[in-house]
Amino acid sequence: MLEFREFIKHLEDFGELKRIKKEVDVKYEITAVMKKAERENGPALLFENVKGYKGMTVVGNLYTTEGRVAIGVGAKREELDAAPKAVIQEVVRPLFEVAKGKLKEPTVVKTGFVKDVVVTKNPDVLKTVPVIAHCEKDGGSYISAGMVIGRFPETGERVIQLIEMQVKGPNQLAISPVTPMFSEAYKVAENLNQKLEVAVVIGIDPDLMLAACCPAEFAGADKYMLAGALRGEPLKLVKCETVDLEVPANAEFVIEGEMPPHERTDMGPYGDYFKTYYWKEKKPYINVKAITHRENPVYQDILADGRECALLLCIPAEIDVLKSLKETFPYVKEVYIPRTSASHHVIISMKKYTNMDAKAVIYRVLSSSFIAKHCIVVDEDIDVSNWDDVDWAIVSRVQADKDIIVIPELYGSPLDPSIKSGFTTAKMGVDATIDLTVPKERYERSDVPKDVKEKVEKEWSKYFE
Ligand SMILES: Cc1cc2nc3c(=O)[nH]c(=O)nc-3n(C[C@H](O)[C@H](O)[C@H](O)COP(=O)(O)O)c2cc1C
Fold first, then answer.
1. I need a surface site. Which of 26, 126, 274, 441 has the fewest CB within 10 A?
2. pLDDT tens, per residue, the chain with 465 residues
3. Which residue lies with its CA nearest to atom 23 of ligand 1?
4. Of ligand 1's atoms, which has the minimum distance to the CA of residue 160?
5. Which alpha helices (DSSP H) does 369-443 contain, by range?
């Protein structure tokens, strides 16, 4: 198990993080540097000289590659030599498989580093926390790596997820809970005409980050317990100052507050994971009551329109989709969600026994998974994580009049700019598997004889002597 600061240290030791000493502005400049580093497959970045925030640092692009995610959960250097997809399959997924049956209750300790500095009198978010302004047309500064914790009012069941928040004033954050758990908890509170207490935690350990991004159905309701299972020991929590919630004892920042019922404020526009601007809309908000943080805190930022956000969404979602599919379709082999597709393409490989099999999988995935806007099913011989391979299957195995399925009016992402309103989207399935009634030889990959291929592989360097 790595703590947040140990993770940063590990990344640096592995040559995966660079320190930036040049002064940088939280307004757009940090984002511009993070974006360029991402485009150039560069390292994670620790900004040590942040204008206006003496004694604080900002870290970005922590989870921009599969390798860095794996380092977060303790991968060894040699394990990182495998292809990105294999790193996830071999290092990250087994942890989740084992963890599922071993949920661990967190323990509450007296105090922790997150209480080094406690501000309960007139908290002012932008004065205390180096929140970043990301995109040119954004409506303000946004907290993008904030894990939000709340509880269902009547059951006390915890809800935990990453949610984007806009700083609206010294002590107000607009918040946009879209996925069901958190928005449900707030709805229940509103129905009871109660406020919902929340805590926003920034700078969390990697296993907790992965657990927080995990779909609720897979995680079980309490993601603190999933994080405990991933690390093999209970998470240590401390009580908040002004709300009845617990937060990780070693977090970098915690913003405590409450969401008043039936109140809305403008939020947006903001650049989101569809890589477009989500428009200005009325959203709930948090009245901030306290801010606590570590000495010399490290603020984490995630580019909502970057690869890091996609990876954090895709990795747990793949685990969830694969697990639930295998329960009904044991012949499903692999699931991959391309990191470039705003996480809404799902590619599945399977062994087919009848011509109905792939279509059955498509209907199941499109109707049950929020994340699946388009689902492509391929045969076992196709590598789902290799787009060239998938593209080849689509072009050589699909007959559009019978292999394309369109389902109108299913549950999708309201952030999708092509959706006219609400959550309703059309979905598409592509059955890119071989038609079993067509002779198999037609699909044989053209290639040289196997023995010659192996000889050339073995003697490859000799051709260039
Ligand atoms: C960087 C990042 C930002 C996110 N922002 C939001 C958001 O603003 N609103 C939201 O509902 N979900 C957001 N999510 C997605 C949820 O955190 C994620 O879907 C959720 O944790 C899945 O679990 P759930 O089933 O408990 O919702 C974000 C995810 C990431 C990685």
1. 441
2. 899 999 999 999 999 999 999 999 999 999 999 999 999 999 999 999 999 999 999 999 999 999 999 999 999 888 888 888 889 988 999 898 888 778 889 999 999 999 999 999 999 999 999 999 999 999 999 999 999 999 999 999 999 999 999 999 999 999 999 888 899 999 999 999 999 999 999 999 999 999 999 988 787 768 999 999 999 999 999 999 999 999 999 999 999 999 999 999 999 999 999 999 999 999 999 999 999 999 999 999 999 999 999 999 999 999 999 999 999 999 999 999 999 878 899 999 999 999 999 999 999 999 998 889 999 999 999 999 999 999 999 999 999 999 999 999 999 998 999 998 889 999 999 999 999 999 989 999 999 999 999 999 999 999 999
3. 215
4. 26
5. 387-397, 400-403
Q: CB of 164 closer than 6 A to ligand 1?
A: yes
Q: What is the best residue among 157, 161, 210, 218 to mutate for testing ligand 1's pocket, by most ligand atoms within 8 Å of CB?
A: 161
**From the CA of 410, how far away is ligand 1's center (Å)?**
19
Burial of 437 (0-12, 13-18, 19+ CB in 10 A): exposed
Answer whether 288 contacts ligand 1 (Cβ < 6 A). no
Q: β-pairing, 44-47 with 17-20? A: parallel
CATH no. for 4-307: 2.30.110.10
Domain with CATH 3.40.1670.10 in the chain: 329-443
Q: Which atom of ligand 1 is nearest to the CA of 317?
A: 22
CATH fold, domain 329-443, is UbiD C-terminal domain-like (3.40.1670)
Provide the phi-psi class of 409: left if phi over 0, else alpha when psi is between -120 and 50, else beta. Answer: left
Note the Cα 386 to chain centre separation in Å.
21
Residues making up the chain, counted from first to last: 465
Report the candidate in 152, 193, 160 with the shortest Cα–Cα distance to residue 177.
160
Q: Whose CA is nearest to atom 5 of ligand 1?
A: 163
Q: Mapping DSSP to helix (H, G, I), strand (E, B) and coil, where does residue 129 land?
A: coil
